[in-house]
Structures are given as structure tokens and as C-alpha cells.
Amino acid sequence: MTIRTGVYPGTFDPITLGHMDIIRRGAKLVDKLVIGVTTNPSKTPMFTVDERLATVRREIADIDAAIEIVAFDSLLMDFAERQGAKVIVRGLRAVADFEYEYQMAGMNQQINPRVETVFLMADVALQPIASRLVKEIALFGGPIDKFVSPAVAAEVAARVDKIGRKGS
Q1: DSSP β-bridge partners for residue 67
Q2: What count of Cα atoms within 13 Å lies in the side-chain half-sphere of residue 119?
Q3: Angstrom distance (rounded) from CA 66 to CA 30
Q4: Which pLDDT value is given to residue 75?
Q5: Does the pLDDT of residue 165 top 80, yes or no?
Q6: Is the pLDDT of residue 167 over 70?
Q7: Residue 65 Cα distances to 33, 60, 61, 124, angstroms
Q8: Residue 128 contacts by C-beta under 8 Å, 6 or more apart in sequence?
Q9: Residues 134 and 14: beta-carbon distance below 8 Å
Q10: Which ranges of 7-48 would DSSP assign to H, the alpha helix?
Q11: pLDDT for res 164
Q12: 52, 90, 93, 135: which one is catalytic?
């Protein structure tokens, strides 16, 4: 029997309720879901890779599925190949996401045609959530508890206290 492995890549800085929705649903589509935690060179992360790995592990602990969390710093398609994945799981929030993700899926298909990209629409209530916006709201002292778990909200608040709020 062949195990169908999927990869759900992201920076997860921080992991949001939207990410968790895609993880729960994506895990139902494959036998094993590998959550690939990476750093986007065009973004400045609030948390280190090790901190994000630990947070993702804690947040997915109650999900009854075969899930592995792995850091990577390479082309997504190379990472997927190393994991034995045949599927890349990507979440979509809005039309702007689709345009970017469509272009990336096309490029990835050219790099490795053996791996398919599957798009999952975020739950309607979670569609506006973006890690970038969560960090921005937190940095200006706004509430983020509707967008992340209580534990993540506490971690973000502690980090903001450490680095300082904006507009203070």
C-alpha cells in the first residue's frame, strides 16, 4: 500500500486559526501531512524557526491524524520530493491569494510535474486572517484573540512586549 503524503508549507509566523483550518482539512485528504515551516526571504519573522516549530507542534497536538512538522530552507518542490509528497496543500483566502498561488502552482508544476497542488478555500469566517495582519495589529496594541489561539496570542503579546509596540 502506498502512503499518500502531502505537504502544507508556510512561515506560520504566527500560526493562525486559518492555518489550523487548512491543516485539519488537509490532513483528511492525505495519509500523512507534512507541515513545512520555512522562512520567506522577503519577510522579517517575529519568531525563530525553532519557536515556530514548537508552536505548530503544540497547536496541532489534538488533531487525530498523521502529521509531521519539519523545517525547510529550500525550493518547495525539492522539499516535497524529499518528503515523498505527491500533493502540495495550499489555503486560499481571496482572489489576490488565488492569483499568487496560481502562478506559484504553475511554476512548481514546471519544476516538478510529479507533485500536484491542491487548493482549499479557507472557512468563510477565517478568510480575512493573515499572519502579517495579526502581527501588525498586535504591534499597535490591538486585540488578536479572534485570529489565533489563546496560547499563540500570549506568545505574540510577550514578543511585542519584548520588541516594543508601535505608536507608543
Answers
A1: 33
A2: 15
A3: 9
A4: 93
A5: no
A6: no
A7: 8, 9, 10, 24
A8: 93
A9: yes
A10: 17-27
A11: 79
A12: 93
Tell me how far apart the alpha carbons of residues 91 and 106 are, in angstroms, rounded to a whole number.
16
Query: Could you confirm whether 43 is annotated as catalytic?
Result: yes
Active site residue 19: yes
Please give the pLDDT value at position 159.
Answer: 95
- DSSP-assigned letter for residue 3: P
Task: Choose the catalytic residue: 4, 19, 114, 132.
Answer: 19
Q: Give the mean pLDDT of 1-30.
A: 94
pTM of the model: 0.92
Amino acid at 43: K
The C-alpha cell of 131 is what?
A: 499572519
**How large a percentage of the chain has pLDDT more than 90?**
79
Distance (Å, rounded) from C-alpha 21 to C-alpha 19?
5
Size of the chain, expressed as the number of residues it contains: 168
Supply the DSSP string of 83-103, one letter for each residue. HT-SEEEEEE-SHHHHHHHHH
74 catalytic per annotation: no
Annotated catalytic residue within 32, 74, 114, 131: 131
Per the annotation, the verdict on 93 as an active-site residue is yes
Say yes or no to pLDDT of 124 above 90: no
Residue 32, number of CB atoms within 10 A of its CB: 17
Give the rounded distance of the alpha carbon of 128 from its chain centre: 15
Q: Is the pLDDT of residue 1 over 70?
A: no
